[in-house]
Design brief:
The structure holds two protein chains of two kinds. Chain A is an alpha/beta fold. Chain A is built from nine helices and 14 strands. In chain B, a hairpin with a 3-residue loop joins β9 and β10. Classes of the chains: A alpha/beta, B alpha+beta.
Chain lengths: 290, 376
Amino acid sequence: MHIDRQTTVLVQGITGKQGRFHTALMRACGTQIRAGVTPGKGGLTVEGVPVFDTVKEALRYAPVHASIVFVPGRATLAAVTEAIEADIGLIVCITENVPVHDTLRMMDMARDRGAVLLGPNSPGLIRPGHFYLGIMPDRCFRPGHVGIVSRSGTLMYEAAVQMQKYSLGQSCCFGLGGDVMTGWGFSDALSWFHADDNTDVILMIGEIGGSDEEQAARWFLEHGRKPVAAYIAGLTAPEETIMGHAGAFVSEGQGSAASKIETLRLAGIAVLDLPTEMGSGISKLFCVPS
Amino acid sequence: MKFIEHDAKVLMADAGIAVPDGIIVDRSFRPGALSAFQDGPVWLKAQVLHHQRLKRGLVKQEEHIGEAEQEIRSWFKREPDLENIRVESHIVYDLSLYCCLRMDRTQKAVVLLLASPGGPDVELCRDGIVRFETGSGIGTLQDKSAQELHRMGIPAEAVLSWNRFLQSYGRFFMQQDAMICEINPLVLSAGSGWIALDAKLTVDDAARFRHPEWERLNSAFMHDRRTSGHAAAFADVDKNGDIACLANGAGLGMATMDLIHRLGGKPACFVDLGGLSDEAEIEKSICSVCSRPHLRVLLVHVLGGIVRCDRVAQGVRSALKHIPARVTVVMRLSGNRADEGKRLLEGAERRPVIVQDFENAVRTAVRLSGKDTHAH
């Protein structure tokens, strides 16, 4: 997946409140939004962007590299299917409350067609100074050489803000999303950062639930070459309680913060004890010879 | 959303999965309601969601209808919260299995778990459980599971009817947007094929829009009653905790609770505002959280990106009138319109304690919660 200033974008669900609002913000950041789609609203213009009924029609007007999806949960599967079938290589799904069975179908389709799916429930991705596709506050981020990958949106902004104090910026930041299952996982992002010459160190921000952090630890044991630090949220969360994100819960002893921290440490990842150490922890990693 | 056994069985029967004949009775139960069962034996099963029914004596076999009626009355007298009891006919069977389809986060697939024999002790010996990954369909499952049943010593003719069962079961799992559908035990009864003697069903709340049939079930009503009064993103951490946190984002909220704990405080609960910036909703959430009797501090932690800090501040200002005097409000507002938000609060009658950064916000909250406790 290659993303830069020339990456062109389609907005699915552009006529809704969220789609409209974030189209304006993304354009202000220089994102090259070429077209929008809302079934039944073809012919309109939103924020200067022409709207089409289907992805196919939109792509006939202007080919794009990436799509960002704002359509409601009940229509997300159809929208993402359309984008994958049109061979769009990067799909960022912002929508929350997508049925898990639908997510599973989207993940299978994306894998079969070689598309990158971020989300559902993702805050998007940002390559500061180059490319912005999402809903995070862009002014928290500065160009630099730290790669951030996070399940949580707000903790990703917090990390970037903490890094400002140490004059550190980011090569790229990926928000994986807080759902039970999501397309891209930590190991996909770690692998991307390892191939990216602009990334020197990596910060992983995980949380309770699932085993994506553990899978990343296994990936890192085998392939890791760049220094990685991690913070895991949810040490105080009681079992079986859903902590805000649909996917953030510990069940039958699986997915607890303590077990994730242990696994990451054993793999040689520097685990940060406190959420306030994300800036200082990363600055220390720059001193470690890799 | 978790379903009570009776509701799960009603849905399963509709989907062609065999279940024992049964009815549900409530507190308006009258003698004669069990006439359909002739003279037993019958099973009485309390319709509650927790998993300790057997230990608590809330699953019981009765030989005769008269005794069953007496027992039902005594259960309702003994268990004030019990609403429903399922009465079902006794099934004679030859062999049993533990059988469970579930959405597996690690495999990112639907998996089938099988064990032989089934029964209440099966979860104690996880090693005996055989798993299958299925991808997002269940088509590949038949051959592999049939082989496994054969290995478990299940007779060949039973494997034939297994395929028929698995088809209905798999279709049911997909159509119902199920997260977990556990049948334990699943039994093979001569002449009747596979029968689900028990059923635990958890479905995906996010799919509720396409399941009008759920709304007719008591489970949906019970679920709504359990969660009412709380925003969807409310999480209880400790009933005895004294610091509540209102944050915009689940990750930030969890991290804040963790830091409270690390610095010696007692986190109580958190509310994830998400992208919410409706002042009235924020006010409502704050009032609901602050009514907890042990609460000493409300920590409002907002990193305004899309959320506007001034809107949150306005919600807090309106709520301050209703917050009990024992609760101190500590706020960290950062990002989108933070200065406007802080200005709004300067004019308030009860001024919250405003703190600049993450660590100091939590330190202040912990300190204030401790000071209050000593004063009492």
